[in-house]
Design a protein that fits this description.
- By secondary structure, the protein is α+β, with helices and mostly antiparallel strands.
- It is 36% helix and 28% strand.
- The protein has a single domain, classed as GAF domain (Beta-Lactamase).
- The longest helix has 17 residues.
- It starts with a helix and ends with a helix.
- The protein binds methionine sulfoxide (SME).
Length: 146
């Protein structure tokens, strides 16, 4: 992980302990210029994802069934997905015409899939391996406290 991301991860540990998930979303949104929407979906009834904290514009996709859209695919596959160009994604659920790329990272609590971090960017190809590493570390951090 690069030094900036290490510092951000350290900062987020404190934010998570003291202020909770809402502030984690805000801190990511504020610190990463290419993160134009940041949200966390929680698994409900083992079959759908329900949006809880988020930063950015309101979305109509507050509930997503497993298997639907990129978020629903991550719920089925259990692995991070990066979409470089959402226009080329058949199953994409659009929240805003401005969004061009997306990363969705699963969160596990004691090996059980419980939630997802979802980030949209208004820039194409916005998410790199570095974002994936940072966000997977944050997912582990969140999974250990929820
Ligand atoms: N694009 C997502 C839906 C959630 S919004 O990005 C907030 C998807 O295809 O699952």
């Amino acid at each position: 992980m690069n030094e900036d991301d290490q510092n951000l991860l350290e900062k987020l540990k404190g934010v998570l302990e003291e202020d909770g998930l809402d502030e984690v979303c805000r801190t990511l949104y504020d610190n990463k210029e290419h993160y134009d929407w940041v949200g966390i979906y929680f698994v409900e009834d083992g079959e759908k994802l329900v949006l809880e904290p988020f930063k950015g514009k309101k979305t109509i996709h507050t509930e997503i069934p497993f298997g639907s859209g990129v978020c629903g695919r991550v719920a089925m596959e259990g692995k991070t997905i990066i979409v470089d160009d959402v226009c080329k994604e058949n199953e994409y659920l659009s929240c805003s015409p401005h969004v061009k790329s997306e990363i969705v990272v699963p969160i596990y609590k004691e090996n059980e899939f419980v939630a997802e971090i979802d980030i949209d960017s208004n820039t194409e190809n916005a998410f790199s391996e570095e974002d994936k590493i940072l966000l997977e570390n944050i997912a582990v951090m969140i999974g250990s406290v929820i």
